[in-house]
Design brief:
The complex is a heterodimer of chains A (358) and B (141). Chain A is mainly β. Chain A has two helices and 18 strands. Chain A is 7% helix and 60% strand. Chain B has five helices and seven strands. Chain B has a five-stranded mixed β-sheet, with helices on both faces. A two-stranded antiparallel ribbon of chain B has the order 2-3. Classes of the chains: A mainly beta (358), B alpha/beta (141). Chains A and B meet through strand 2 and strand 3 of A and helix 2, strand 2 and helix 4 of B.
Chain lengths: 358, 141
């Protein structure tokens, strides 16, 4: 057990107490201080509390689900150059699902509507880190943070992303969260070139709340910031997956730019997998990419197109997905989305979502 | 003679209405021991850089409807309101908020005078000896 994994993080009672503490503080501060809807509240620039929530609906192959997907409280407490950041989240709070077909013993479908409802209210620690800002060139984070790779992973919540769905890049090419240390800053000699070097050598804080179970990870990213809407870079790393004893080496490139009303972004990742165990295992590689454009059709209305692709050499599998989404932002912190996804080899998918930063 | 006089008056008025250019100065407290470039000012206002030489930098904004702020956004940040909103939404997820807003140039002047690490933008009449100028931008009205 690593030093960053105190036992109480796994205790759901403690998580509830922590969430309740934040909730009570939030309410108390909101009444006492000026609250800015969508920007949280800020007390003397030292304490900041905010949050977000998401509702979503998904229908695919006559199976549908309506979800109160998440509610999260974010906080940052600063003492000079040191700050403590936390994100506590309740996920899948309410799920109402239905299935309009039922499979029989003869493998035939008969029309039958099955419904289920489920309330679940448990809080998880999504992020928890201490950040130290030393200067322009050297800063670090210690704790559990978003793995600083590419574009999507840093903005994967519904209120920030352009579409309801996530591209394949975000699922199994690298862990979304790292529990370790991240050194970052600007290169002294470069012109606005930013670096990140991150390492994990211990168990995860809240290991069940990550897309991959990883206990060893080393990675880097180099990013050129031309301006805020024009960034590009490359990254790479190596990690050991806990369960399968597989070692992944990955490399990626990414970029985003804005041309008048068009926001354009793309990421490509390649991963090579090697089994560390004694089992005879075929080494294999996989590659994924997405190209996305978001165009402002009217003020506050955006139409988004995305093409996703994946090729996995282990089973010679390819996946191609075409996504079209309408994103309406009546206010900077509110997003309504309607999305349709066309899968080349699987049933299509329809999604709706409502997300809010509060 | 009268016609020439009227013409001269007209030309003066005409030329002054078109050459009305002003400078906006990005300034900070004189006792803050850091040297900054105009490019770094941009990154400080976007909070990509938050500390230099151990000193916490505190960028301050004027209210959203202030024309000096509009010029600053246009000429230094090179961003429109929509781009800024999207940007600050992304920073919100990291718990980083936009610069604090002070209600007038006079308030910014007083704040910079008092607080080490404070950075603001002002027109010429608000600049005094307690500040150092990081860079200036020429704006044409």
């Amino acid at each position: 057990m690593g030093v960053l994994t105190p036992i109480f993080f796994y205790n759901s009672f403690m998580k509830k107490i922590l969430f309740l503490f934040f909730l009570l503080n939030t309410v108390a501060f909101a009444f006492e201080n000026k609250y800015d809807f969508g920007r949280g509240f800020n007390i003397n620039n030292n304490i900041w509390i905010g949050g977000y929530l998401t509702f979503s609906y998904k229908n695919r192959d006559d199976k549908g689900s309506l979800k109160f997907e998440d509610i999260a409280l974010l906080s940052r407490i600063s003492f000079g150059n040191i700050s403590l950041f936390s994100e506590i989240e309740a996920k899948n709070i309410y799920i109402s699902s239905f299935n309009s077909h039922k499979r029989t013993g003869n493998n035939k479908y008969i029309p039958k509507i099955e419904k289920s409802r489920n309330w679940h209210f448990d809080f998880e620690i999504e992020r928890l880190f201490i950040e130290y800002n030393y200067n322009k060139y050297l800063n670090f984070k210690v704790g559990r943070f978003l793995t600083p790779l590419g574009i999507w992973n840093k903005i994967h919540i519904d209120a920030l992303k352009w579409t309801v769905s996530d591209p394949l890049v975000s699922t199994n090419f690298f862990p979304m969260f790292t529990t370790g240390i991240d050194l970052y800053g600007f290169f002294p000699l470069g012109r606005n070139i930013k670096y990140n070097i991150f390492v994990q050598r211990n168990e995860n804080i809240n290991p069940s709340y990550n897309n991959l179970k990883v206990d060893k990870l080393t990675g880097f990213q180099i990013e050129k910031i031309v301006n805020i809407n024009q960034r590009y870079g490359f990254n790479g790393g190596i990690f050991d997956e806990d369960i399968s004893y597989e070692r992944y080496t990955f490399l990626g490139i990414f970029g985003k730019t804005k041309i008048k009303k068009l926001y354009f972004s793309s990421e490509i990742f390649y991963a090579f997998e090697k089994n560390k165990g004694n089992v005879k295992h075929k080494e294999h590689g996989k590659i994924t990419y997405y190209i996305q454009s978001a165009y402002r059709v009217f003020p506050s209305h955006y139409v988004v197109f995305r093409k996703d692709g994946l090729y996995d050499s282990s089973d010679d599998k390819t996946i191609d997905i075409w996504t079209v989404c309408w994103n309406y932002r009546p206010r900077f912190n509110v997003s309504f989305k309607v999305e349709y996804q066309i899968f080349e080899k699987y049933p299509d998918c329809f999604r709706l979502s409502f997300a809010l930063l509060f | 003679m009268k016609k020439i006089f009227i013409l001269i008056i007209f030309l003066i008025c005409f030329s002054s209405s078109f050459s009305k250019e002003e400078y906006i100065y990005v300034v900070m407290n004189k006792n803050t021991p850091v040297k900054l470039s105009c490019e770094e000012v941009k990154l400080i206002y976007l909070k990509e850089i938050r500390v230099i030489n151990g000193i916490t930098l505190i960028p301050v904004n004027l209210p959203a409807n202030n024309p000096v702020r509009t010029y600053f956004r246009k000429y230094i940040l090179n961003m429109d309101e929509e781009e800024l909103s999207i940007y600050w939404n992304e920073m919100y997820y990291e718990g980083i908020t936009p610069p604090i807003v002070l209600k007038s140039q006079e308030a910014v002047r007083r704040f910079i005078k008092k607080v080490k690490g404070a950075i603001g933008y002002l027109t010429k009449k608000y600049i005094d000896k307690s500040m150092k100028i990081i860079c200036s931008i020429k704006v044409e009205k």
